[in-house]
Amino acid sequence: MNSSTKASASSSVKSRGDVFASKIETKITCEQSPEHNPYHVNKQLIHGYDHLDLLDNCNFADVIYLLLRGNLPSEKDSILFNKLALALINPGPRHPAAQASITAGVGNTDIVNILPIALGVYGGTFDGAGNMENTIRFFRKAAKKPVIEFEEEALNKKIPSITQHYGDANTYANILLDKLKPYANEGKVFSWLTQLQALIYPKNIGATKTSIAAAVMADLGFQPRQGAALMQLLAAPGLLAHGLEFTNKPVTAMLFEPDETYHIEPKNNE
Amino acid sequence: MNNYQAWDKYHGRIVSSRGGWKIGSGVQNCGYDMMNDLVGKTSYMQVVVLNATGRLPSKAIADWIEAIHICLSWPDPRIWCNRIGALAGSSRASGVAASCLGVLAAESTSYGIKPLISGVEFIEHALTQVTKGTSVKDFITAEIKKHGGKPHLMGYARPIAKGDERIPAMEKVTKKLGFPIGEHLSLAYKIEAILNTEFDESMNINGYVSAFLADQGFSSIEVYRIFSAVVLSGVTACYTDTADRLEGSFAPLKTSDVIYKGVTLRKV
Lengths: 270, 268
Description:
The complex is a heterodimer of chains A (about 270) and B (about 270).
Chain A: E1 29-32, E2 43-46, E3 49-50, H1 51-57, H2 60-69, H3 75-88, H4 96-106, H5 111-122, H6 132-142, H7 151-155, E4 162-163, H8 171-184, H9 188-200, E5 206-207, H10 209-220, H11 224-245
Antiparallel strand pairs in A: 1-2, 2-3, 4-5
Chain B: H1 5-8, E1 19-22, E2 26-29, E3 32-33, H2 34-38, H3 44-53, H4 59-71, H5 80-90, H6 95-105, H7 114-132, H8 136-146, H9 166-176, H10 183-199, H11 205-215, H12 220-226, H13 232-243
Antiparallel strand pairs in B: 1-2, 2-3
Helix pairs in contact in B: 3-4, 3-12, 4-9, 5-6, 5-13, 6-13, 7-10, 7-11, 7-12, 10-11
């Protein structure tokens, strides 16, 4: 048979008969409607708490914790979660995600697109959230074993988010790790990470913001699949601020490398 | 009170004027059977226009629109949307994210997609005024007055550089595909002639595209929708270039590359 005359069995299309939900289910939010309009809400519960009660009595970070974990944090966990949020709050203007935010800001991109752009770039694995799931999974298992067993693996960059930054161990991540110790060191995973850092940082490799976030989130009970998105959320304020700062600046405030510094590598198309 | 009936008409059902997939009987799109009427018989760009406007355009118009898509997707990471693609590659974000983020960036009032709305509306307004009897010169004078005496008419002048190499390229495409110069494009050239003489400014690609597509009967919002991903391919090119290089190596900045102009150290 000529290959162009073959007929696939796919020509007959039938429904598989899968039964889909007729209503969405959630454990997070319960909404009640007033009598006059079933699309309106007059009461909202978040994991059982009245939203207005949370508004009166909780801080922002605690309700983020509640939304993702299902319970309000203990006082100690609340402090730790807030400290982590502050540790991650500003990746700084040189971070590629902040650069993207600035580029969108100065380029007069619609304001509502600036944060999604920045967070999308921050979803990369270079000093961003991209490796969070792998990292949390690895750390949760590894922290059950003595840290010495992982030294060689770490030095060979085989542990997710244990690496170098621009060629050296990450200076500021090391400072943050030290700074978070009083709040986080009781956590099994964070403690394991600090012990690993003590072994490897003198050898010019070490923790990153991603690994710090992964350790704290693991100890706070966040699931690996929540980690990347939560890290994006916590870094959002700084990324957004740098983009918004440039929205009123002229286009010449952006970097635009002159042709003299732009090198096009030769390509042979023949 | 009790004014929600309009939404109840849509509650629990999907209403589409475009079409959809009925399992076993095929995919409908604006009255066409996609697999039998469109696949293999139309170009991709014809279906892009169909999806954006509900009307299947001629192959020639779709080819023209495809050509302008090439003009607006350059692999230069210094262009805003492309820079975001390059930064995403350098950051090791995903390729899909990078391309979409670049498209999001091009939803800008300075470049990309939004000026096409203003461009079509501008040339339609210009034609209305001139048809009513306003001279082209008087129209330009009034527009310049609106912009504080600067010749910043929508579709004319260009940021960063003067002149636009994309227009002669598209003029060749227009001629090759056999399109005549319509009344919007004709007026666009007359406006350009005056701006060129008096301000040394010329039409930019937005002005040319807007006038041509207005002549083809597309509304401003239809043009916006057709061109929603116009920069996509250039962003992808910039992403792939940096994604294949050393991570973090696109335009890396040292702390000394940033000038701090805020308040000096203070305590909480």
